[in-house]
Amino acid sequence: MKTRLEKDSLGSKRVPLNAYYGIQTLRAVENFPISGLRLQHEMVLAFALIKKAAAQANAKLGLLPRRHASAIIRACDEVLRGKLDDQFVVDAYQAGAGTSFNMNMNEVLANRANELLGAKRGSYRYLRPNDHVNMAQSTNDTFPTAIRLAALLSLAPLVEAMEALERSLQKKAREFDSVVKAGRTHLQDAVPVRLGREFGAYALAIRKARQHILDTAQALNELNLGATAVGTGMNTHPRYRFLAVNALRRMSGFPVRVAEDLMERTQSLGDFARLSGALRVFALELIRIANDLRLLNSGPNTGFGEIDLPAIQPGSSIMPGKVNPVVPEMVDMVGFQVLGHDATVSFATQAGQLELNVMMPVVAYNLLQAMHLLTRSTDVLAHRCIDGITAHSDRCEAFAHRSLALVTALAPKIGYLSAAMIAKESLASGKPLIDLVIQHNLLDPKTARQLLDPNRLSRGV
Question: Is the pTM of this model over 0.85?
Answer without folding.
Answer: yes
